[in-house]
Amino acid sequence: MAKSVGRTRFLGSFVDTLPEPSLPEVAFAGRSNVGKSSAINALIGATVARVAKTPGRTQALNLFEVDEAWIAVDLPGYGYAKVSKTMREGWKGLIEGYLANRPTLRLVVCLVDPRVPPQEMDAGLLHGLADAGIPTLVVATKIDAFTRTRRVDALRVLATAHGIDLSRLIGFSAHEGIGKDEVLNAIRAAVR
Fold first, then answer.
1. Handedness of CA 146, 128, 184, 37 (dihedral sign)
2. Which CATH architecture has domain 8-191?
3. Per-domain residue ranges of the chain
4. Cβ-Cβ contacts under 8 Å for 16 (sequence gap 6 or more)
5. How many CA atoms lie within 13 Å of 176's alpha carbon, on the beta-carbon side?
6. Residue 98, SS3?
7. Strand locations in the chain (E)
8. How would you class 23 by CB atoms within 10 Å of its CB: exposed for 0-12, middle for 13-18, buried for 19 or more?
């Protein structure tokens, strides 16, 4: 059984110049209300990412050093957020610039919400990552909203809509720990 990681150090919030690359990085991307901060906190085993009731609170690249082995990068959410169009466009440029130019990026954990119909924004991100050859792990958050028998159906809908193999999609719950071991194992394999 994979364990949560232990020592986490906040490296800062960045909107332009990032610190020099040092350790392997894992970026977490997803829509503004997908549960990204809750997922990061559950995986790291510490409350490091700010969980807010209002979507769109992550407005910079937030970097956390984990166990002196890798860096978790909390990207701003895309999609719904009560912020100006100019700010949303700025986030888009920030995210795209990071994804295209970070040599230590080893994996993008793309979080999707199985409770809503498949989103074009998620599909766009997944296709862009595939086109750029960036390793991606697709994680369906809030899977605990479904009964055990309905979870596979919900995952199958997402896999089909996004053109990915069902085996490449992990159902996850930050609250119940569902899928946590699988996600942590994938992260550890990517940052070796």
1. negative
2. 3-Layer(aba) Sandwich (3.40)
3. 8-191
4. none
5. 13
6. helix
7. 8-14, 25-30, 61-66, 70-74, 105-112, 136-140, 169-171
8. middle
Write b or e for each residue in 40-75: b if 16 or more Cβ atoms lie within 10 A of its Cβ, otherwise e: bbbbbbbebbeeeeebbbbbebbbbbbeeebbbbbb
The pLDDT value given to residue 1? 39
pLDDT, one tens digit per residue, over 163-191 is: 999 988 999 999 999 999 999 999 999 99
Q: Quick one: 172 exposed, middle or buried, by C-beta within 10 A (0-12, 13-18, 19+)?
A: buried
Beta bridge partners of 108: 27, 136
Q: Quick one: which of 121, 160, 152 has its CA closest to 33?
A: 121
Q: What is the pLDDT of residues 101-122, one digit of tens each?
A: 899 999 999 999 999 999 998 9
